[in-house]
Amino acid sequence: MEQKLKVGVLGATGMVGQRFVTLLENHPWFELVAVAASPRSAGKTYEEAVGGRWKMKTPMPEAAKKLVVLNVNQVEEVAAQVDFVFSAVDMSKDEIRAIEEAYAKAEVPVVSNNSAHRWTPDVPMMVPELNPEHAEIIPYQRKRLGTKRGFIAVKPNCSIQSYTPALHALREFEPTLVVATTYQAISGAGKTFKDWPEMIDNVIPYIAGEEEKSEQEPLRIWGKIEDGVIKKAEGPLITTQCIRVPVEDGHTAAVFVNFKKKPTKEEIIDRWNNFSGEPQKLNLPSAPKQFIRYMEEDNRPQVHLDRDYEHGMGISLGRLREDTAFDYKFVGLSHNTLRGAAGGAVLSAELLTAKGYITPKNA
Known about the structure:
It comes from Anthropogastromicrobium aceti. By secondary structure, the protein is an alpha/beta fold. It folds into two domains: about 170 residues, NAD(P)-binding Rossmann-like Domain (Rossmann fold, 3-Layer(aba) Sandwich); about 180 residues, Dihydrodipicolinate Reductase, domain 2, CATH 3.30.360. It has twelve helices and 14 strands. The strands form three sheets. Strands 3-2-1-4-5-6 form a six-stranded parallel β-sheet, with helices on both faces. The radius of gyration is 20 Å and the shape is globular. The mean pLDDT is about 95.
């Protein structure tokens, strides 16, 4: 890319915002030029605003430290400085919907980590390897918003990345029923063990709103564009339980599945290991070379050993075997704040750039 796109991060001081800031350091296509947060952070340098709340394992990027934090509510001021923004704002859903739409109407594309617009009918919710064609809804959204450049795109729930890609690669065999239990890291709640000590040596069998997202969002990913909206797929039937476990990063899923056309174990592993999507074909900067890998060892995938596969952007699967009640069962693992959150959003932005939906303002 001849000229880097200028990008801002909304909600830059929070955990996902911090992850965006680290991922944008030395990005070949994108340059971080603006950080925005709540009015109480505005006017401070990014380093001052974050203070002792830096939650990443790598140091704060030097280029970000001296950026002066803007008031996220002053849309025109932020919009004037950027070609597009990533959104990780911490607000109510109604407030998020309103502010993301305000940025889009200010002709700034918004690639959001938030859930507020996941069911807005003309907003694409993308895992770039699975449903890149959903970007084709953007012209309909722009018509509704009255914009030429501005639009909103979102990424799905972090936990579904641990099993939805595995099911997607097997769609030719027509999965009919899926039972999934996800074991979710504390960073999915924006926490570390330092600020959530009650999670040490503990399991919480409830995450608000998570099971509905886990059951419904894959169906939207598999949906079709009809009459200017995305209509979710009718199946498979998915039922889930979502459990918070004392793990820092990495969501694990235990999955049981029935098929209309039952494949062999060899066919399943072949489809997983050879699955490739649009990001791989386009050689996008953040795309894993091998999106899905199957691990033969009985004790893999493991969070500690495997969550950082392909820089946290790949999916690790294992323990595939026939079941007494279902056709098959297996275990999946994904990095929830990389593939599942900020990294997935950055990859989506790369795809939208490669497809011509995100462009420089002066283009």
